């Protein structure tokens, strides 16, 4: 409970502004006339007090002083008018002669800065937990979104870049906060209420005040300037503290709180907003705070969506050479019941790697939720697409820039994935875990994902990342050797891993069954090669042994960090070969697939044909069929595979958010 020390004066009548719910602590000794021995207290009926140490029940009247005698004073309800309550203290000498009298005029106010601390979408009255933040279903604390979408579609920019409210629709991206007051119609002369935030928080938050109801009601068609005027900035940016003009009596004043920054290495995500009552001092001295109320917000993290969530929109690029690919993708997307968005050539400028430039995620709060695209520092020719096309009303944008640092292929977001929900040694990850690829910790000159992006991912906290080893690949992306597909049993998914061993086993089986002369890349002209030729290539075998050991290293990490058994993993027959000391897929890399519910869009492997049927497709279809998944093989050979990417690299999927609410995580 908020306690405030108050002093008495026997020379003049004082006034005290009391805030309901607090305690006024009056030290009686301190202001007593010298040689006072006894005292007595009188109060108006609505004032309660307690004396400590408590005098003996049957003690003398008036009460003798006992060391540091303190009066603890409270009032239950707000005053109707100023000075409607009174406290008086009489001081007596040894012979109970009167030595002096201190009188205080009391005025009680109710003041509460309120937020949605119980996370039900409503701003409740004076939640006792509003000043702190706790994770979990029994936790508490309000939530703030980074206002990273753009209400304007023409000359757009992030709403958070403007220190003003330019559209009423923007208010729903902010957290409501209400100042509730009751008491006399105005504050006693000289008192004022101020809102204040710390310097650090001022870069992360803005608070706007609504003047609606104070003089006029708003209509949607008021022009631009009106909004700026009707929602003045209270604190944020340069403004750390500002007086809040108040309607008193029984009043509510609405505020809108805007988040400006995602959690990051230097920002935990917690923000406090304080409201203080200032009391005037004598002429020439600054006011002193006599009461502070405080609310705490946590900025919502950016959350990624795994393959097990339902697809909403699929994004691909149109290029001069990928008509057939687009046609097949369109059929698959239609079959899966979602939308296909094609990024035209004038926007992609020939950059077809839709997976690599962006990652879709979302932000969520009890009052609002929207998708947010994370733009990679890769900045290929697709670099304008996320900002110019995706950013919009209720579609947010965030990026991290590696100023002055070299950006490598590992910064592409084919190297950023997320697992389905898992439980690891009793610890729940109901939003899954982020997966990135880096160099071996022992590598001398390894490529890594740039630090600013890694820092951002770790700081979001709710999908604690796992770093895999992907630098052994020429392109270096985790999606070249792993993916997740939904499954009806076990943990609700399977981890699919590329496996040269599985591939050699399948090829040897074909040879044993007399299909050694079956040709890979049938119909692709110069590429054709027989099963016998592949199996007798010693160099290829050595390369694939190395690749298998790299994948096995990652397999062990994934098993450990995701709590998986071997039964949760399916090995897919895929061969690699080595170029410039690093691996690339030898034939279209089937694990680099697009997952749309139960429909998989898989790079057509052009494997050896047995009885007119591709043996690799047959194996894949049978493995996935066991999980109730349907495989569509998409020919990406010329337009993607030959350029060192596949279906997954060339597409991206925006998915439904989790139904699990991130603030219910137990941390
Ligand atoms: C309330 O009491 C204080 C102290 O006696 C006095 O200065 C002030 O003028 C009073 N206000 C009203 C409105 O009576
Ligand atoms: C807000 O109030 C809390 C608790 O009363 C205090 O610790 C903090 O320093 C205050 N912050 C600012 C910026 O006034
Ligand atoms: C690469 O990133 C990983 C994961 O954060 C880190 O452990 C490692 O030290 C980094 N390596 C280099 C060479 O920066």
Structure description:
- Strands 2, 4, 6, 8, 9, 11, 13, 14 and 16 form a nine-stranded mixed beta sheet that branches.
- The protein is built from eleven helices and 42 strands.
- With about 675 residues, it is of the alpha+beta class.
- The protein folds into three domains: about 5-110, Sandwich (Immunoglobulin-like); about 115-300, Immunoglobulin-like (Sandwich), CATH 2.60.40.1700; about 305-660, L-arginine/glycine Amidinotransferase, Chain A (5-stranded Propeller).
- The two termini are about 30 Å apart.
- One 2-acetamido-2-deoxy-beta-D-glucopyranose binds near residues 438, 441, 448, 454 and 467.
- Its EC number is 3.5.3.15.
- It is found in: Cytoplasm.
Number of domains: 3
CATH architecture of the largest domain: 5-stranded Propeller
CATH class of the largest domain: Alpha Beta
The CATH superfamily name of the largest domain is L-arginine/glycine Amidinotransferase, Chain A
Taking the sheet with the most strands, its summary is: 9 strands, mixed
Associated small molecules: 2-acetamido-2-deoxy-beta-D-glucopyranose
Shape: elongated
């Amino acid at each position: 409970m908020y306690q405030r020390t108050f002093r008495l004066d026997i020379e003049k009548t004082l006034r005290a502004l009391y805030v309901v719910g607090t305690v006024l602590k009056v030290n009686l000794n301190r202001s007593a006339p010298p040689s006072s021995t006894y005292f007595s207290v009188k109060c108006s009926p609505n004032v309660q007090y307690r004396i400590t140490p408590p005098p003996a029940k049957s003690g003398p009247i008036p009460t003798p002083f006992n060391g540091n005698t303190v009066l603890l004073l409270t009032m239950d309800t707000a005053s109707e008018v100023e000075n409607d309550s009174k406290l008086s203290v009489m001081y007596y000498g040894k012979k109970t002669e009167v030595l002096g009298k201190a009188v205080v005029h009391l005025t009680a106010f109710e003041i509460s800065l309120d937020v949605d601390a119980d996370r039900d979408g409503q701003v409740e009255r004076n939640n006792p937990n509003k000043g702190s933040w706790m994770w979990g279903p029994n936790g508490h604390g309000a939530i703030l979104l980074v206002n990273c979408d753009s209400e304007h579609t023409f000359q757009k920019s992030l709403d958070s870049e403007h220190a003003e409210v330019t559209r009423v629709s923007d208010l729903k991206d902010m957290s409501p906060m209400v100042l509730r007051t009751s008491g006399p119609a105005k504050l006693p002369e000289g008192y004022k209420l101020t809102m204040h935030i710390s310097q650090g928080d001022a870069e992360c938050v803005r608070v706007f005040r609504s003047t609606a109801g104070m003089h006029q009601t708003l209509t949607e068609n008021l022009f631009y300037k009106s909004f700026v005027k009707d929602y003045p900035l209270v604190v944020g940016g340069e403004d750390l503290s500002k007086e809040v003009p108040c309607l008193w009596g029984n009043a509510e004043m609405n505020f809108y709180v805007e988040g400006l920054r995602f959690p990051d290495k230097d920002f935990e995500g917690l923000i406090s907003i304080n409201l203080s009552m200032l009391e005037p001092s004598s002429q020439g001295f600054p006011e002193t705070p006599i009461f502070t109320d405080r609310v705490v917000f946590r900025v919502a993290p950016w959350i990624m969506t795994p393959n097990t969530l339902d697809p909403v929109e699929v994004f691909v690029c149109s290029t001069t050479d990928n008509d057939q690919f687009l046609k097949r993708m369109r059929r698959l997307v239609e079959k899966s019941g979602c939308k296909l968005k094609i990024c035209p050539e004038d926007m992609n400028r020939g950059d077809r790697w839709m997976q690599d430039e962006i990652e879709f995620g979302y932000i969520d709060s009890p009052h609002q939720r929207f998708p947010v695209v994370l733009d990679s520092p890769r900045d290929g020719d697709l670099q304008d697409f996320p900002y110019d096309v995706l950013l919009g009303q209720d579609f947010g944008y965030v990026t991290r820039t590696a100023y002055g640092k070299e950006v490598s292929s590992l910064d592409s977001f084919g190297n950023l994935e997320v697992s389905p929900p898992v439980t690891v040694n009793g610890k729940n990850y109901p939003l899954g875990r982020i997966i990135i690829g880096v160099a071996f910790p022992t590598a001398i000159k390894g490529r890594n994902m740039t630090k600013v992006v890694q820092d951002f991912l770790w700081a979001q906290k709710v999908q604690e990342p796992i770093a895999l080893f992907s630098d052994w690949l020429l392109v270096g992306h985790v999606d070249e050797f792993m993916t997740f597909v939904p499954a009806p049993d076990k943990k609700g998914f399977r981890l699919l891993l590329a496996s040269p061993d599985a591939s050699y086993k399948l090829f040897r089986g074909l040879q044993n069954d007399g299909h050694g002369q079956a040709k890979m890349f049938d119909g692709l002209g110069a590429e054709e090669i027989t099963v016998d030729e592949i199996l007798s290539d010693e160099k290829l075998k050595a390369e694939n042994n190395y690749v298998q050991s790299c994948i096995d290293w990652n397999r062990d990490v994934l098993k450990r960090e995701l709590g998986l058994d071997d039964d949760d993993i399916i090995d897919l027959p895929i061969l690699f070969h080595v170029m410039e000391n690093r691996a690339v897929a030898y034939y279209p890399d089937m694990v680099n697939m697009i997952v749309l519910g139960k429909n998989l869009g898989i790079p057509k492997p052009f494997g050896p044909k047995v009885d007119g049927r591709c043996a690799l497709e047959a194996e894949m279809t049978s493995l996935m069929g066991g999980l109730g998944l349907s495989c569509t093989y998409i020919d990406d050979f010329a337009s993607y595979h030959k350029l060192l990417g596949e279906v997954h690299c060339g597409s991206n999927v925006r998915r439904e958010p989790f139904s699990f609410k991130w603030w219910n995580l137990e941390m």
